[in-house]
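Annex B. Sample input.
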Amino acid sequence: MIRDHFRVLTADLSTGKRTITDIDGRNTVAGGSGLAAMLFEKYAILDKSWNDPGQPLIFAIGPLTGYFPLMSKTVCAFKSPYHDQYAESHAGGRSALAMRFADFDAVVIIGKAKSPSALIVGSRQIEIKDVHYLWGTDLYAAGKILRRMLPGSGHRTILRIGPAGERQSPMACINADSYRHFGRLGAGAVMGAKNLKAIMVHGDGSFPLPEGGDYARVFDKVYADMTDTDMMSKYHNLGTPGNVRVMNDLKALPIRNLQATADPATEGISGERFAEVALLRNAACAGCPVGCIHIGFVRERFREENRYLYRQISYDHELIFAVGSMLGIMNCFEVLKLIDVAERVGLDVMSPGVALAWATEALAKGIVTEKETLVPLAFGNSAAYQEALEHMAYGTNDFYQLLSQSTAKAAERYGGGDFACVLGQEMAGYATGEAFFVSQALGLRHSHLDSGGYSYDQKPKGKKVEDAVKFLVQDEKGRCLLTSMVSCLFARGVYTDEVLANCLKSVGYGTLADNMDTIAGEIQKLRWKLRVRSGYRPENIAIPKRFSEITTWKGQIDSAFLSQLKEEYGRKIIEIAG
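Annex B, continued. Sample output.
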């Protein structure tokens, strides 16, 4: 049923109270990122710390969830333990479709449970269940038990944290249905602070599809574009791991803590190499016909006479970069082993990978010693990194407790800030140039997906600051609209403004369709306003010296252009925020 309001579940873990309310705003914020920001503004306590029990943890879906393919993301909003400011994290899996079938546009979680708990949500059931026996278990063990507690896949989603989240590490993620994650900026720590081990949403209801021929015609066209053309084929074939070879050829792949941007040895971790020897199968988020999730395997000997257990591990470009090229690991199976360790303990793979790359260089330069690192960190030493990931998850000593807060904090104490590869948070896997470095450093999520800075760098646009800033602002605005629809950003080539408008009209959201540009601008403004009100100051964000020392296929990074672009983009962000 199409409705102009949002149906929102609020669960208070402290009191056990659950409330369902209708909230206006559909034609103002659309859903997804816009709805999450609106609810954060309503529930957040901006002058209190991220781990105050009253702070909200928000999950929101969009107006086209369940109606069109690749409208498969859920947006999670929270006050981040990484910087104590407004943050978003996005994940796929089954979460969005489960929420649609449970008939909720958003779930808002406040309070702190008295003992470790799980929140169970359905159209007929809302329960806060004591699961103290799961506290301390890793993600794999917890997943087995939780699946028995709420059997049946399909429309059921299970979101859970591991030991890193329980310890409230800012590098902790929320695992979604095994192969997807709410990563970056510490969403897992927020669940840990609330004594919340898991959230299970059972999509046990139904919703009617629009009547008439318009919806069917629009759906068929979108579906055909995704499956009968080559628009999405690269995501199904090699997936994002195909970027490893591309970035290496461009001299834009961060290698050994960004001491290099190309190396022939990276062929051992290319998407082509993974597909040749390590790929088991493809998987897809619910409601997606593309299947971009690539799953490889690791095996572990459990008996001396060559008997092995196999585990299936999802991989993509960002993970291969973080625990592959960044750590000098050039064997695809060793990369999968490192991903496996991080997954098991509930770490967002990207941040600890980059952090350990800094720690490796710091150890080599004598800034820290093995007394701090506990293991002989060295580029290419997979066994040492596997141990170090465990140390980061559990905070074995003061060094790892601090390093798991952020690379920047560790560098502030020990030194080595010049070679800390941090752009707001630990960098993503694209050393393409100035526009990307600035867009991630200052971006709202400090993510390579905030805007297409990495693509701007790859085009011969010259070095006009005003042109680059205009691109970053407009590209971010378009992505705000897509993430408010909760579209997978891989589908942005399919969901043009015209197609998106047709989709909205076909299901009854004509007002949204007619005002998309205005709504996108308002959402962009609201998100930045919340970030600034919670403490964000672009002038306080530094881009470390390492980023100005590298060379790409275009030549040496232009430090003057980088500095001017950062200053002007920061000024523009404050202007947008009002």
